[in-house]
């Protein structure tokens, strides 16, 4: 029988041992000088002050008001007013006929065909400009 010798590493000697020493925490970085009693900015704030107040609020609110008024004006400027009666006639849609062609046929020279298309759509409560042959439309005249 053969015996094999297993070689074990030599035990560590004092020169091979490492001594672990605690490492001190790095010094905290100096914070910028602040006036007495001031706190650091909270989330949602910027250094100039609160995002919900200050000099920036009035111009923003004024801008929102102006945009809102302009939108309302543009939405209602092309509508048929109850104060202005519209004389209408009936028109039956023929195959291949478009709303633009119908509007162009009843629009006075020099007037905007787009405005007439808008009036026809409103008078007939059309969601879009799709027409069906045989469909009866109310169209403005003169």
Overview of this structure, please?
Helix 2 packs across helix 3 (113-123). A hairpin with a 2-residue loop joins strand 1 and strand 2 (49-50). The model has no long low-confidence stretch (mean pLDDT 74). With 142 residues, the protein is of the alpha+beta class. The strands form two sheets. The protein has a two-stranded antiparallel ribbon with strand order 1-2. A two-stranded antiparallel sheet has the order 3-4. The chain is built from three helices and four strands; from the N terminus they run E-E-H-E-H-H-E. It has helices spanning 57-77, 99-106, 113-123; strands at residues 45-46, 49-50, 88-92, 136-140. It has a domain at 97-140.
